[in-house]
Design brief:
It is a single chain. By secondary structure, the protein is mostly helical. Strands 1-2 form a two-stranded antiparallel ribbon. The protein is built from 16 helices and 2 strands.
Amino acid sequence: MSSEPKATLKSVRSAIEEELSIFLNRESAYLNSISSDLSPVSDSLTSFLLDSGKRLRPLFAYAGFAAAGGSVEKSAIRAMAALELLQACALIHDDLMDGSDTRRGKPSIHRHFESVHVQEQLDGFAPQYGLSAAVLLGDLALVWSDQMLNTAGLTTEQYARVMPFYNEMRVELMAGQFLDIHEQTQKDTKVDRSMKIARYKSGKYTIERPLHLGAAIASPSQDVVAALSSYGLPLGEAFQLRDDLLGVFGDPSVTGKPAGDDLREGKRTVLIAMTNERQSEAQREVGRKYFGKPDIDAEGVAILQEIIESTGARAELETTIERLTDEALTAAQSNAFTDDGKALLIELANIATKRSS
């Protein structure tokens, strides 16, 4: 691999894509051998995984691997690629729970299968068909993530080191997802609760645990694992807070989601919690008319955006993202890391926090 971080990440991303393609071709053939009716399943998952995606989780895993002094091998890349299948599970189920119509500019999985039901004039209730298909496809992606990791070719020692991190990551992801849906039921929203959700739903799962998983393949010292947490936890929170901003202010042509989608869904994010703490009673009354209403139009979105802006919540969140990113960049200079690892961690910190989608 090149010592230049951008070139290295590009090379790793290509290797991840190749391993995913090989795995998906093989497993799709097996599904289709069971029944031709399963072709839409394999086709949809293959498209979902290969047509787009930043591959951030495998890239952070590789950065952890490099920071711990690992040498590139096919088995390590395959193990890291399994994280993309876990991510597919999370996104498919997340879109279903949020009622999202699109993902990456295309219909979300449940909406896609709902459309298939309508177009093919199938019997039954189209929305239920879409919902059921999305649950099963998400579950299948989760099973495939285990399968890809189990068959990656890691040594017994590597596998024993990786599994505790992998298991903990999955538990934390599900815990964060439940805390997220539970938060939507609360009569008030608090910054500390929303920050915890940001940490567990996305931050740890996107950055800290993939770093640990990659380092575990390379056999790290406890100092490396601790140093990776010092970097990964603040960066993971900054990553999710950037996501919160994009969910309200992002450009639909870049994010692949409608403008203000999080406002229609009524997501209780850190941004919304900060807004609620600062808004006047008059602003609160106006906000109640629009926030969490699936049918709000562009004017309603603009009104909510203006309230968020005028309270200073957006500016404060940007400041928080900058502070957390600086904390991560300082941690990336740890003497526990290799020089190549440090360069990759710095490059990925910028990618994760300065993105527009």
